[in-house]
Amino acid sequence: MEQRVRLEIDAAIATITNDNPAKHNAFDDAMDVRLFEILAELRDSPEVRAVIWRGEGPSWSSGRDVSAIGTNQTGLTHQELMVRGHRGIQQLWDLEAPVIVAVHGWAIGGSFQRALLCDIRIAAEDARFMLPELGHGVIPDTGGMAVLYEMCGHGLVSDMVLTGRRLSADEALRFGIVSRVVPNDELDATARQMAEAIVAAPAIAVKLARRVIGRLARPQQRSSMGDESTYQTLLNRSADFAEFRAARIEGRPPRYTGN
Asked: Is 168 inside a domain boundary?
């Protein structure tokens, strides 16, 4: 079994741990599959009342493992991979238990977007957030743009997506992306205390409150993810994307046509 994403259940609290520290917990296809299996297991675990998602090593997750980009060994088409990814991560919304993400170091790209789909994010003082997809010739495609738009408005999401702006933990707190910033050595304990507070509340009240909050946000997020799937697939077939890759390989400036 894939061990770079682990699940531990302690009474009513489950902990998901990203455990690929040598690569700052960057995800590849095998890690994605294991994460989606874990979410399916939690979806069918009514005894779990709160979930903590944390990371080992220097970062929570640096996004996609760049060594795995362009090396699709799944046998799936690009569109099928997009559908699998969206369906897999949308299982977060089917859980009865709120998910607390405890971010330290980097939260980048698709991993940052996955964190945005969770209920609560807290950050260590060294946390940094980034959406660098345009620098790799693609667009963010995991629902994060919709969440950032809801949280922060047009200006910040455009700045992060179009320029690759990096946010510090304090900036993320100011914009409402995280709800707390704590010293690094207090991050895990704080996440645990928050999970215990959730578990101490009546289960039906937690479930219904989470459902109300979710219904406020889900329609726009689902619509945005549908657009991302369509446009990312078109982009991967575009002349500009082919030129982006050719220019990288040949070490020359790209000549884009907008097609």
From this structure: yes
Domain count, the chain: 1
Predicted confidence (pLDDT) at residue 78 exceeds the cutoff of 90? no
Residue among 67, 145, 61, 138 at smallest CA distance from 102: 61
How many Cβ atoms are within 10 Å of 258's Cβ, its own excluded? 6
Exposed / middle / buried, residue 63 (Cβ in 10 Å: 0-12, 13-18, 19+): buried
**Has residue 143 been placed in a domain?**
yes
In whole angstroms, what is the distance from residue 91 CA to residue 37 CA? 10
SS (HEC) of 31-97:
HHHHHHHHHHHHHCCCCCCEEEEEECCCCCECCECHHHCCCCCCCCCHHHHHHHHHHHHHHHHHCCC
Q: What order of strands is seen across the sheet that includes strand 50-55?
A: 5-10, 13-18, 50-55, 99-103, 120-124, 180-182
Q: What is the pLDDT of residue 80?
A: 85
3-state secondary structure of 234: helix
For residue 94, the domain's CATH number is 3.90.226.10
Residue labelled with tokens 């999401």: 157
Q: Residue 149 and residue 157: Cα distance in Å, rounded? A: 6
**Contact (CB, 8 A) for 27 and 69:** no
Please write the tens of the pLDDT for every residue from 186-227: 999 999 999 999 999 999 999 999 999 999 888 889 999 999
Domain-embedded: residue 66:
yes
Average pLDDT on 53-82 reads 82
Residue 93 lies in a domain: yes
pLDDT of 71 strictly over 70: no
What pLDDT score does 193 carry?
Answer: 98
pTM: 0.94
Residue 34 structural domain = 5-185+199-203
